[in-house]
Amino acid sequence: MAYSSTTSSVEKYPYPWEVNVLDFVPDKLSDAKCYPQWKQLMVDFIESQGLLGFVDGSTTEAASKRVSQAASSNSVSWRRSDNLVRGWILTTLDKDTRLQVLRYTTARGVWTRLVDMFDRAKNRFQLDEETEKKKRRYLPLRIAAIEGDWDTTSKIIESEPDIVRAAIMPYSDTALSLAVKSSRRNHFVEKILKKMSPEDAGLADQWGRTALHRAAGVGNVEAAKLLAS
């Protein structure tokens, strides 16, 4: 009876150790280009072994410990199967990729890191989502800077002083570098400079252009003088 109980608990999670993952996923993952095919083959393989929960997060060690009977054995069984799945994943990675994920001790950890590294669709969605959040957050200041509306801007700065150095446009433009593009907004430039440190005023966009470069580029001499003073 003791043997039967031990076997049952150990086999709570599948452990198909004799299966060779390379028979199902023959090509090593090395870059984003080969990631979609690798992922599909890997998901199909892991799912066929009844272990997909170890990478999608639906089978966790914490859940195995919540089972009142033979909780310790369940945890051992979970860890054994998780190590197996983690080993499968590592086996199908090239050397450089493997070195980047070795520090993750669970199959889920390795899998999630690979998604972050190679899943272009996910990363693009996250980037788009972050960009949209930033657009919504900075829209009032962007409109105020374009219109030279200092009253609105001063209220925004009063509630969030650090916003004077924030990149409020896709190419890292600040409110200042946006305002200097037109001499009609020089009253705005003069006032916002009083809210900024020299370092803030000298912030550059992703191409290394500062507000002074922008002012000079459009021939806004007055703004350039304000920035240089």
UniProtKB/TrEMBL annotation:
The keyword Endoplasmic reticulum does not apply. InterPro entries: Ankyrin_rpt, Ankyrin_rpt-contain_sf. Keywords: ANK repeat. This is Uncharacterized protein. The keyword Transmembrane does not apply. Pfam families: Ank_2 (PF12796). It comes from the Eukaryota. SUPFAM superfamilies: Ankyrin repeat. ANK repeats lie at residues 207-229.
